Amino acid sequence: MFGLQSLHRCCESNFAIKFKKPGYSNVRHIIDCTEIFIETPSDPNLRAATWSDYKHHNTAKLLVSITPHGFFNFLSKAWGGRTSDVHLTRESSFYDIIEPGDEVMADRGFTIAEDLLIRSSRLHIPPGKRGQEQFTKAEVAKTKEIANLRIFVEQAIRRLKTFRLIKHELPISLLGSIDNIVLICAALCNLYRPLGKK
Could you tell me which residue ranges the DDE Tnp4 domain spans (predicted)? Predict the structure, then answer.
């Protein structure tokens, strides 16, 4: 993938300091989905498939994975904004780069723990409420801890979207090239200073 997957292991010795703490030293992927605004399609089916209730706009959605230093090591193909995060994750080729022992960090909406378990991998997500009225102190601490580590993927996505083509509404004429556009933008981001570097 244009050098993105080659970063899967190269940063192991330089993990961000926060990830060296016990319990997170095997995190290899921090994942999230991001949406890119697109011009409203004239085709009603395409318009429906790309409508995002979350963004209240027509979008293309893709799954991104970064290393704890903020290097992109996976980008999915773009899907319509209507696609759920879990469906996109399962239907992308993300699981193909997961190796036994790898750990993945994500938001609680990524209910993929069993998918990863089959691959001898582990998922780190903030704890859910499970019907109780309040979190326990331990759950509050865990939620805060994971949020502080997941911030890297949000920063990486913000960095990705500084490129003008995907910062604003992508013209419908470029929709067929969106995968290549985003891939090149991500490869350029990988030339920047690592997010986790002091």
Answer: 31-190
